[in-house]
User: What shape does this take?
Amino acid sequence: MIRLLSLYFLFMMFLIFTTHGNSVCSHGNSTSEKYKVIIVGAGISGIGAATHLLKNNFSDIAILEASNRLGGRVHTAPFGDFLIEYGAQWVHGLDDNAVYTLVLPYNFLYIQVVELKNSFVKHSDSKLNLSVINDWLFDEAVEFFYNTTDMTSCNCSVEDYFDKKFKEVIELKNIDKYTAQAVNDFFKKTQGSVYGTGNLSTVGWGNELHQYYENKDLAWKTGYHSLIDILLGKYEGKELPVIQKTKFNKVVQTINWTGNEVQLTCEDGTHYFADHVIVTVSLGVLKFSAKTMFNPPLPNNKLIAIESLGFDIVNKFYIQFETRWWPMNFAHMFNFLWTNEDKQRFKNESKYDGWATEIIGFHFVENQPRILEAWVMGDTARLLETLSDDDLIGAVMEVLNWFVGNKYTISHPINTTRSAWASNPFVRGAYSYLTVKSDHLEFSAIDVIAEPLSFNQTNPVILFAGEASHNKHFSTVHGALETGWREAMRILNF
Ligand SMILES: Cc1cc2nc3c(=O)[nH]c(=O)nc-3n(C[C@H](O)[C@H](O)[C@H](O)COP(=O)(O)OP(=O)(O)OC[C@H]3O[C@@H](n4cnc5c(N)ncnc54)[C@H](O)[C@@H]3O)c2cc1C
Assistant: This one.
């Protein structure tokens, strides 16, 4: 079998060398391939760059991708009765959104109306006042809290902003301290999932200024991977050869541009040469390897920019039940409210250290009648990656029983799956955000990350794409896509 696989591998290598039209050259005693453009990473920004070049008849390109698939943080997979998303899930906003514009003709998206009102549950003995929450919170509070002018004038971390606003609310509305604390906790965690972090004290107010989505999220009927199919031209009957141009399992270790061409060396010892390289690796990967990956080293302001932006972690998990047991009248989710006293009681009774007090609720999943989905952030997301399936399911059952066990007969969980973005060496986190530190830099950290490096002022040699290099739509798929197009255009216009 191994021998057969080796023959197959040799045959594939022969095909690759003979069909791609790139030159095969000899550097020292190792045979290497030379391309006009090499793209490092086949996430959405890398695919965006490749498809844009190919559409413009620029075909002397290769993509080196560390993993064995296209998509990066877009990762749709079969699970349960349909599909789930380990990574990106929604298309955020309709205006100024390249993904929305691309997908619109295909009717693959629907607007997901998030009805928070009446989605909250509490423990039967909790001192919380749910009617205050439903009557007041969602008529007024969202406007009260998400006030960009107030946030700008606060010039503080998002955590400090929320704490300040909560003090105002308690005085204004005379809300009891238990309810106020639980709602504050909920708001902060929800906001943490927006920025992909468990620590809002590092998150800068600048995010709110840059990222305004008119509060409309669109979900996929067909899974986020349909975006890749659209980009590749699968629905237009003429598929661009992105898969053929991609070399999978190629972990680029060093990018050396001390000579008059760029040499990329992969973990497996192979070398590739190019005139231009578009680096699309995540900010997490750059934080980890920027100092060792490039020769000559990156300029100091780029290193400061990489270090100052935030890149923490969000993970999701899915639980499949034998039968659907939750009511139809919850629109898309139910949310948990915890007072500190509730948390302590839960922890005292828990067999699983009570980490589940960090779960703020569950979403129902489109076309998945038996699956619940939850998001966790920061340390809890890191912990999630280490749990056994049994311990995860055990903790989830504890929390479901705590909140709704007296109302519903919860059916038996039969399967689970989860993302593990923190320990994925090719991502190392979730998505980027502006920090208090980057808000106070004298330059835009994002713009500095996006600056190409040149042999002279005019020849862009090392170019940077990826969501963290988009100064408006960082952290998103549409931001990533636009940066890929941007860098492809830079090369085409050169
Ligand atoms: C849990 C989660 C939920 C999200 N939800 C949403 C959402 O609802 N909506 C939204 O718009 N966005 C969402 N995002 C963010 C979105 O997924 C990203 O912004 C976007 O997909 C990033 O694309 P990219 O091309 O910049 O980077 P990536 O997708 O990270 O692509 C980079 C590629 O580079 C490869 N690579 C890394 N290192 C190397 C190396 N050394 N050599 C070769 N290849 C390498 C990686 O394997 C990867 O394929 C979410 C992300 C996560 C993690």
Residues 40-46, 64-67, 72-74, 87-90, 92, 250-252, 280-282, 285, 314, 316, 419, 421, 426-427, 430-431, 466-467, 475-477, 480 surround flavin-adenine dinucleotide (CB under 6 Å). Residues 152 and 205 are 6 Å apart (CA to CA). The chain has 18 helices and 23 strands.
